[in-house]
Amino acid sequence: MKDADIVVVGAGAAGLSLADRLTRPDMPRPGPSVLLVTAPPGPARPAERTWCFWERTGGDYDDAVVASWERLRVRAPDGTVVEATPAPLRYKMIRSPGFEELLRERLSARPGFRGTEATVQEVRDVPGGAEVRCTTADGAALTLRARWVFDSRPPRRLPPARTVLLQHFRGWFLRTERPAFDPDAAELMDFRTPQPARGLSFGYVLPLGTREALVEYTEFAPEVIGDAAYDRLLGRYVRDVLGIGAARVVAAEQGVIPMTDAVFPRRAGASVFRIGAAGGATRPATGYTFSAVRRQAAAIADACRAGRTPVPPPAHGARARAMDAVMLRALATGRIDGPRFFVELFRHCPAELVLRFLDGESRLLEDLALGLRTPVLPMLRTAAELPLLARRENPSCPFPAPVSLPVPTEEERP
Q1: Where are the domains of the chain?
Q2: How far is 204 from 199, CA to CA, in rounded Å?
Q3: Nearest alpha carbon to residue 7 among 122, 151, 118
Q4: pLDDT tens sequence across 58-96
Q5: Residues 272 and 124: beta-carbon distance below 8 Å
Q6: Degrees, nearest 5: CA angle 344-349-351
Q7: Which superfamily, per CATH, for 4-69+91-158+261-305?
Q8: Contact indicator for 13, 48 with CB cutoff of 8 Å
Q9: CA 93 from chain center: how many Å?
């Protein structure tokens, strides 16, 4: 006996987006019944997160958008500014609590939807479908059965890869005593930071007003750094580079995003599928995930309504994945200068085209035009090398997840 047509494991961006698409009442055909399994409060539930993406005004989730920007900036190590307006696109920011509240309000009004809280222990195929074995908050065993199961939990380890860099970051939500930010412009990459021996680092500034902003220190590097190093580098960036004066840290966040050419399997059984970052939704060259998660959800919902086996499609096309693999390898080997690579890309190419490329929506000729704005010889050498490299296991690289941080003490503040 089925508990639902579909069980979705995990109520993050991927799980909620999929539940939303599957149960929308404005579709031409009735959707399947959906049961969403949310981890109870505790270590299994993800920390609060910030998701950023770009799209036109009037998106499906605009009611959850905290802020958006019509202008984007990239700063070279010497402070030279490249500013762009990617109209008609806007850069948008969503915080996970607001997104979850919006989606839960929508879903609660739909007759085909149910939710439950439990910690998932195992997902497996059974005759005629799949089952999810869980433990409830009071310790009781719970088994859920469905025709299809979509699992968004991160795998414990990365799949084999030729290149792995970690995009790791720490951010402070700051409130300043005097106006210090331009609320109409987001600083995507500010390379006025100490550069690591391998990879790159940059500051990231998302203003929420003239006196409030999320400010992050980010690295693309083979390994993460310690807490003391994060606070030292972030404090130096806020104090010495931005020079914003007296400020109070009202919240903090930290995360690690694998940037890799690993192939993430999207199918874990005859009736079990992986979605979100676990299903390869993260863009290897940038770490952006939110837009790809939504595309995956839409494609899965369309397949379900059409009666097809709902295997999640690749989140990024083969051409985009190949170009990302080359860029990651060139960056990891030091063949290209990371800050210069990104500054020149935004300097010489329309920002709207760059963003469409990063979303996998650019055409072949546009991709070739972008490629000519990169260091051609190092990239060609890397492209020739990649087919000769074996994909290696990553036993020391568990798939990380975002964490919440306590607000820094007086001594740790900028």
Answers
A1: 4-69+91-158+261-305
A2: 16
A3: 151
A4: 899 999 999 999 999 999 999 999 999 998 999 999 999
A5: yes
A6: 105
A7: FAD/NAD(P)-binding domain (3.50.50.60)
A8: no
A9: 12
